Design the sequence.
């Protein structure tokens, strides 16, 4: 029974991903089925073993019915005894670990599938949209704004308040591309490293954010399986467990954000790390939500990896690259790995890969403890999880 | 682009009523009659005390730029880039996102701005400000 500070018990026993990039021939249900099938195979489980679902309503398709039963049926797990549709944007897949763990601990399900897929790239091509930046501006928020331009307001604030340079912002994208370029081609949308200069000279979207500093537009999806630790041990092999969790959802529109200088990630991260009883030195690998370059700078500060205002220097220090103190987004993130919509799920599957020795060319040697973070809206929703690798005896 | 243009269908009834008020009266700030908290835009309930009784105070019109951007890829292709947007902290407390006018305007964090007018552009409300040099 959770004592209120410890997170619910949750063991992550399998993960699966579709190809990532441009997949015009696969719909959302197909992508979900593919990801779920891969996760089940990875875990050594069958669809019949799954009795709970965390799903996501796609933005590019009308599923024609309630999301949970449609996706449950598409992935072959119906009937289920517990199901939920996420609603916290990019924070949802980190929060889903706790959602699933809480349901399992309460006896409402034994094995929960978390799955999300979408096809922003195919949808853009089909609709002939030049850009799918999303009209995220609220009804009272300058109608020319998009998601990207709203984040850009915070970027200029950071630059002018702290002296952060455009090169430091761009370096975030360079690091992402370096990690993505080490992935198998089907696993990362970006196949080559972009230098800081190339990032800066990509088309300007909303000053200072250039295109390479904004999320990719991709197709694809992923899934992971959550169960209790006893079952994980029975399944054998390596798995990850949730040792700390925190969430903080603070505002809807950017104008509702009290202070650019602190998002909910600060409180969420404090709670997660306190519950896990870890300090930053204990973290071997990190996943930081990277919808835009500025997002990473903000969250590094909120999560205590550096003092407020100096994340630019941290980004340039090498600490966040493979071989550094805190290798970050070793899959390439939303900036260079994939962003089909539910980009945050890949930060979770990458953490599982790292903690179970399956991260291939970006494996952090001996990775035992990961911090995974997700963000939704305009710095609106935040979730942080600390995960530890385990080996079944 | 004129006040005669109608607001599009993305406005809820409450939002439309408040937008119409801004278009008619200029920048007004909803103030909770129960706890005197100012807020913007008009929410269904006071975020501090939950009450639903409002007075609408004419804003001084002055504010400070907390953040801004020059939008090069606007949401609507009818906008001619760049379009400048700023998050403005009003004297009264609430923050609004507005449009510092200019071609493009010379804006920096910390700049003083003044409200000019509310108007409808391509079906949506714009709050226009001028940058005080």
Sequence:
């Amino acid at each position: 029974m959770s004592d209120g500070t410890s997170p619910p018990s949750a063991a992550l026993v399998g993960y699966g991903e579709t190809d990532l990039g441009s997949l015009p021939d696969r719909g959302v249900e197909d992508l979900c089925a593919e990801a779920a099938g891969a996760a089940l195979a990875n875990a050594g489980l069958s669809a019949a073993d799954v009795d709970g679902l965390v799903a996501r309503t796609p933005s590019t398709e009308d599923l024609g019915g309630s999301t949970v039963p449609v996706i449950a049926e598409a992935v072959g797990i119906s009937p289920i005894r517990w199901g939920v549709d996420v609603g916290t944007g990019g924070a949802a897949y980190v929060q889903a670990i706790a959602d699933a763990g809480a349901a399992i601990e309460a006896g409402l399900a034994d094995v929960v599938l978390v799955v999300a897929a979408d096809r922003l790239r195919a949808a853009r091509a089909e609709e002939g949209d030049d850009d799918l930046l999303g009209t995220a501006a609220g009804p009272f928020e300058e109608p020319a704004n998009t998601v990207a331009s709203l984040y850009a307001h915070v970027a200029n604030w950071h630059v002018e308040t702290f002296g952060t340079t455009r090169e430091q912002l761009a370096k975030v994208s360079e690091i992402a591309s370096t990690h993505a370029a080490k992935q198998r081609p089907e696993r990362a949308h970006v196949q080559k490293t972009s230098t800081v200069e190339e990032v800066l000279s990509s088309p300007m979207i909303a000053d200072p954010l250039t295109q390479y500093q904004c999320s990719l537009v991709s197709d694809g999806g992923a899934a992971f399986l959550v169960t209790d630790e006893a079952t994980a041990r029975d399944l054998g092999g390596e798995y990850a467990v949730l040792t700390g969790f925190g969430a903080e959802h603070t505002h809807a529109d950017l104008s509702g954000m009290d202070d650019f200088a602190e998002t909910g990630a600060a409180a969420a991260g404090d709670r997660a790390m306190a519950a896990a009883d870890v300090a930053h030195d204990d973290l071997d690998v990190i996943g930081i939500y990277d919808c835009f370059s500025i997002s990473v700078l903000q969250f590094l500060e909120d999560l205590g990896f550096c003092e407020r205002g100096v994340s630019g220097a941290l980004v340039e220090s090498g600490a966040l690259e493979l071989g550094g103190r805190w290798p970050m987004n070793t899959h390439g993130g939303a900036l260079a790995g994939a962003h089909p919509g539910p980009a945050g799920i890949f930060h979770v599957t990458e953490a599982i890969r790292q903690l179970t020795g399956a991260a291939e060319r970006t494996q952090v040697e001996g990775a035992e403890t990961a911090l995974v973070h997700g963000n939704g809206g305009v710095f609106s929703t935040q979730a942080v999880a600390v995960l530890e690798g385990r080996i079944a005896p | 682009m004129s006040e005669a243009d109608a607001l599009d269908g993305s406005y809820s009834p409450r939002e439309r009523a408040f937008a119409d008020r801004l278009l008619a009266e200029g920048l007004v700030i909803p103030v909770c009659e129960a706890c005197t908290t100012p807020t913007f835009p008009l929410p269904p309930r006071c975020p501090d005390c939950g009450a639903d009784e409002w007075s609408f105070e004419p804003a001084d019109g002055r504010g400070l730029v907390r953040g801004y951007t020059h939008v090069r890829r606007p949401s609507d292709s009818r906008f001619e880039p760049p379009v400048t947007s700023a998050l403005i902290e009003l004297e009264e407390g609430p923050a609004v996102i507005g449009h510092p006018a200019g071609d493009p305007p010379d804006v920096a964090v910390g700049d003083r701005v003044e409200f000019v007018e509310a108007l409808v552009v391509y079906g949506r409300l714009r709050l226009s400000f001028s940058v005080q040099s």
